[in-house]
């Protein structure tokens, strides 16, 4: 039995040695929207065979392969990738190296060493040019322990990225503990957001999260122009994917995809200028209608309330407006009127139960109130998801006299996203 096991182990050893002899690193470019340059490359493993070159990914996903052999293959690839990177011009930017959290933690606990940092020393690579990408994988130990090991890379000068944010094991706890420089978004969430507002909202929230922790957002898997447009919209600083290039054997000139990025940014800018001009014109139109009705009310000494809103509606001044709901608040955020909700036949339902609600807790309210005090004119919010209907809407805010604000909720334009 022991002899059979030794033979089997020897066979496996021979297979792994043969595999290592055929390993080669490939590099997928990562592009920066601000500079339109290739800002770096993700190092990915490939294996040569008689049929060409294929990914090593299935090998690392195979649970029957001993972890020690996976680590050995991974380190071989990593050293090849770093050796080639060290020999290239610094204009090629940064190199993203994928590391499994369990591997780096177990290695450090067992040896007190981090082999990747030793390779940086060996090849005299500036650590500021290396991004340690913590891959999507469960980590069973306390997150504080993983953070302590990751901090060794950070303190050495490397940047830190977290892969596949929003899926699998890349939880908020991991992000909060590690405080990465870069958040990489799972492409499947980007694709789902095309037809599901819930996923779209989550995608936008990662942009806000990145802003709050001082990180940059990287969207990987960008394959189409539509993917690129959505990545720009959700606040990506960096993009990566087959729209630009698959992983390739050699580095490319930094401006290889500048024209493609510039065209995508131009299309986004032109579309959004058209949208914002539309909403600006709509806000001016509503402001004129409100001022006209308010002048008559003020001359009669009437206060703003339900009667004022009904006068707006009775005068058909909002008949052609995209408005679906309107209500009045005072400058303290207290709702002074009922909600008026447009129904399918174009008429309006009065919902008195909202009167007296305090909306000053909404993040937008205090800045809005201050702005109205300094410069009383209609304003339009960014698009957001309605709390009740879950529709994507904008809100037009219009000063009424010196003490009230009229809010008009309107559905976003077709094709606005």
Describe, in plain words, how this protein is organized in 3D.
The chain is an alpha/beta fold. 43% of the residues lie in helices and 22% in strands. Helix 6 links the parallel strand 5 (130-134) and strand 6 (159-165). The model is unreliable at 1-12 (pLDDT under 50).
Report a brief summary of the structure.
Helix content is 43%, strand content 22%. By secondary structure, the protein is α/β, with parallel strands linked by helices. It is elongated, with a radius of gyration of 28 Å.
Low-confidence spans: 1-12
Which strand order do you get reading across the main beta sheet? 1-2-4-5-6-7-8-9
> Whole-number radius of gyration?
28 Å
By DSSP, the count of extended strands is: 16
Mean pLDDT: 86
> Biggest β-sheet: count, sense, barrel?
8 strands, mixed, barrel
């Amino acid at each position: 039995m022991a002899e059979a096991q030794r033979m089997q182990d020897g066979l496996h050893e021979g297979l792994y040695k043969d595999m290592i002899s055929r390993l080669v690193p490939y590099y997928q470019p990562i592009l920066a929207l601000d500079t339109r340059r290739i800002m770096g490359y993700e190092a990915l493993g490939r294996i040569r065979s008689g049929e060409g070159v294929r990914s090593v990914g299935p090998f690392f996903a195979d649970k029957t392969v001993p972890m020690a052999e996976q680590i050995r293959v991974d380190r071989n690839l990593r050293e090849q990738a770093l050796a080639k990177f060290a020999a290239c011009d610094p204009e090629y930017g940064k190199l993203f190296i994928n590391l499994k959290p369990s591997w780096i933690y177990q290695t450090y606990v067992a040896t007190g060493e981090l082999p990747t940092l030793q390779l940086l020393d060996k090849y005299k690579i500036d650590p500021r040019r290396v991004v340690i990408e913590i891959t999507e994988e469960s980590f069973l130990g306390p997150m504080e322990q993983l953070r302590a090991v990751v901090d060794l890379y950070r303190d050495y000068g490397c940047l830190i990225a977290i892969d596949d944010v929003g899926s699998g094991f890349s939880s908020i706890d991991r992000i909060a503990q590690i405080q990465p420089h870069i958040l990489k978004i799972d492409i499947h969430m980007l694709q789902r957001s095309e037809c599901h507002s819930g996923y779209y909202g989550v995608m936008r929230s990662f942009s806000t999260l990145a802003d709050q922790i001082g990180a940059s957002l990287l969207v990987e898997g960008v394959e189409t122009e539509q993917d690129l447009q959505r990545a720009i919209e959700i606040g990506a600083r960096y993009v990566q994917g087959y729209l630009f290039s698959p992983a390739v054997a050699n580095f490319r000139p930094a401006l290889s995809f500048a024209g493609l990025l510039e065209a995508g940014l131009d299309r986004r800018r032109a579309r959004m200028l058209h949208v914002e001009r539309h909403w600006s014109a709509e806000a001016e139109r509503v402001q004129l209608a409100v001022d006209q009705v308010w002048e008559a009310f003020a001359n009669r000494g009437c206060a703003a309330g339900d009667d004022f809103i009904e006068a707006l509606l009775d005068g058909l001044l909002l008949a052609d407006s995209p408005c679906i709901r309107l209500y009045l608040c005072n400058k303290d955020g207290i709702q002074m009127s009922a909600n008026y909700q447009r129904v399918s036949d174009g008429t309006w339902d009065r919902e008195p139960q909202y009167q007296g609600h305090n909306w000053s807790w909404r993040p937008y309210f205090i800045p809005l109130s201050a702005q109205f005090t300094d410069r009383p004119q209609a304003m339009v919010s960014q698009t957001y998801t309605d709390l009740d209907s879950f529709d994507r809407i904008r809100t037009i805010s219009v000063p009424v006299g010196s003490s009230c604000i009229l809010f008009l909720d309107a559905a976003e334009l077709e094709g606005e996203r």
